[in-house]
Amino acid sequence: MMKILKKAQERTEEDRKELSRMVQEIIDNVRGNGDEALKEYSRKFDQCERVSMRVSKEEVREAYMQLSPQEVADLKAAASNIQAFAKAQRETVKPLENFSPMPGIFLGHRIIPVKSCCCYVPGGNYPLYSTALMLIIPAKTAGVERVTACSPVMKGTGKINPKTLAAMDIAGVDEIYAVGGAQAIAAFSYGTEEIAPVDMIVGPGNRFVTEAKRQCYGQVGIDFVAGPSEVLVIADGSGTPEIVAADLLAQSEHDVNAKGMVVTTDEAFGKAVMEAVERELEQLETADIARKSWETYGEVVVVSDLDEAVNLVNEYAPEHLELNVQNPDALIPGLCNYGSLFIGENTAEVFGDYASGTNHTLPTLKAARYTGGVWVGTFLKTCTQQSMTPEAMRNIAPLVSRLADGEGLKGHRQAADIRFTSQK
């Protein structure tokens, strides 16, 4: 019997109509007025007076000068792991040639990178320079010819955070633009005088960015529509409450809408985690955000056994899933809905956030039911092809003619029949 020790507040549907209207207005303005609209929003939202949104090589050099040698080395070390895993993933995606379902018919597919993409790197509460690595490196590894990146400026400065700029450069970006928000999504979707449009936009953002991606989808490809960050921990009571508490608060500090959840078979452990959260909040520098997030959306649930835990997790489909249990391998085959999996107490979710090599741009709000996170394959198209011999054509044409006729599509039938009759 499931028991809830701490219940999360239900997420209320935001005023979607008003948000949709505001974002549509921004998109229309950018489509109609191009760079002038972007500059208007930059002045309004970021107190930015940049003449050109394109970041120069000189600005990138200046950014490196503001970083310590250790900071640069750390970015390069994280980039190395991310790139190594991306290359390994790329090697698993292969073309297929000359598959024959019947004699004389040859089927296959090619793996083709998208031509261009924009990697949206948030500014927001924190400069998420790690996201620059997570988006740009897989795109470059996939073979995207033109990889652009954008990020909001630090308010009042007219410049992107120097660590974010360095991360973009280390990742191998081709173009960088100092612009953010829904207006950036519109610019890269439809193009302006300075910004050429792209084929795909990836990366997280606030609700305006998310809504803009939703509205521009179709004009441009997107990774997915992402919401607030989530972590769920399955625990059997064998772990350390303070470690679980730290992982919950690591997500909770993202923003006040983030969610941390524990599903445990041990009620005493669940209570110990809640107590450990309160102790850490007393000394956590980001406690203002983390406390509000935890109090509003934190959840601790006690279940009768690990099978029930697995069923609950698959229903919830969390972004990050941690297995803090004695025998995690026994649970893995039953788990099918999650963004990324962290196996065992040694494997902190934050390791994946920064440097272990897997991607941290992951599906939220139950999107893990139908998609995984950003990876090399996000930027690849699998495009099929076929060819056939005259004999194979004569064999298949009557079948296709009958199938087309059954649907009432006489033009389809004729396209099959004419080949059959002309080859007799």
TrEMBL record:
NAD(+) binds at residues 120, 183, 206. Zn(2+) binds at residues 251, 254, 353, 412. Binds 1 zinc ion per subunit. This is Histidinol dehydrogenase. Its EC number is 1.1.1.23. It catalyses: L-histidinol + 2 NAD(+) + H2O = L-histidine + 2 NADH + 3 H(+). Pathway: Amino-acid biosynthesis; L-histidine biosynthesis; L-histidine from 5-phospho-alpha-D-ribose 1-diphosphate: step 9/9. It is an enzyme of class 1 (oxidoreductase). Signal peptide: none annotated. Residues 2-29 form a coiled coil.
